[in-house]
Design goal:
Length: 242
């Protein structure tokens, strides 16, 4: 019989075609052993998700939480409530959250009991000349500066999670005034998390070799980025695997 993880990779590829092989392998290498949740039928995986440790930092301490990713059900078994079963099992054990990829999915997760949270704004513009204050960061340096700039409460990626951005991305800062998690895009830079003054974004984009940038930042006047169960009110969440 085909090993379970290999079969889950096949289900993942079916549900999310076009994902880079290097990312898929990194994802399964880091999380499949302990954080893959699966429903099987006759030994075959028919529904799955990753339940990734992703703590929430509050003024009163750290909340153990889970980021749910790659919710997938085989086409032959959809409509049976299998994904809902997996989602609610995880949410019963920890605060849990995820990023819906479309408005229709916000509606779906709402019916399951997930509540929208983390309003964000998206800004874009042209790169500018670097100032010399820009620098690449290690994951540990990024998280330390991020904790000083992000509001409370916020969802905090782990160093293991950040390692998924090693190919084509990373973390960068402008002095002590701005910090970002970035991915390289066609001719530009996507700042998947941006904390601090956005005036420095054009310089950071140029430092990274981009001609344009787009950034996501937490804003009470924005549009909700994620949905969650048990997530503290006002929590900021920006970094997702999209």
């Amino acid at each position: 019989m085909e090993p379970l993880i290999t079969a889950c990779m096949r289900l993942y590829d079916m549900a999310f075609p076009g994902e880079p092989e290097a990312f898929t392998r990194a994802m399964f290498d880091r999380y499949a052993q302990d954080h893959l949740r699966v429903i099987c039928e006759d030994g075959e995986p028919i529904s799955m998700l990753f339940s990734i440790p992703y703590p929430i930092i509050t003024k009163n301490g750290t909340v153990d939480a889970r980021y749910l990713y790659a919710v997938a059900t085989h086409p032959d078994h959809r409509g049976k409530g299998l994904a809902k079963q997996l989602l609610l099992q995880e949410a019963a054990e920890h605060p849990a959250f995820l990023r819906p990829m479309s408005q229709s999915l916000f509606d779906y997760y709402g019916k399951v009991g997930f509540v929208p949270f983390s309003p964000i704004e998206i800004e874009a513009g042209a790169a500018d000349a670097p100032s010399g204050a820009e620098r690449l960061l290690s994951p540990a340096e990024f998280l330390a500066l991020r904790d000083r700039l992000a509001p409370f409460p916020h969802c905090r990626p782990t160093e293991q999670f950040l390692s998924l951005y090693e190919n084509g991305g990373g973390t960068v800062a402008h002095g002590e005034d701005a910090v970002a998690l970035f991915e390289q895009a066609k001719g530009g830079v996507l700042f998947k998390e941006y904390w601090g003054n956005p005036v420095f974004a054009p310089r950071l984009a140029a430092f990274l070799g981009g001609t344009r940038f787009e950034l996501r930042r937490f804003s009470q006047s924005g549009t909700c980025f994620g949905v969650g169960i048990g997530v503290p009110q006002g929590t900021a969440f920006l970094a997702a695997l999209d």
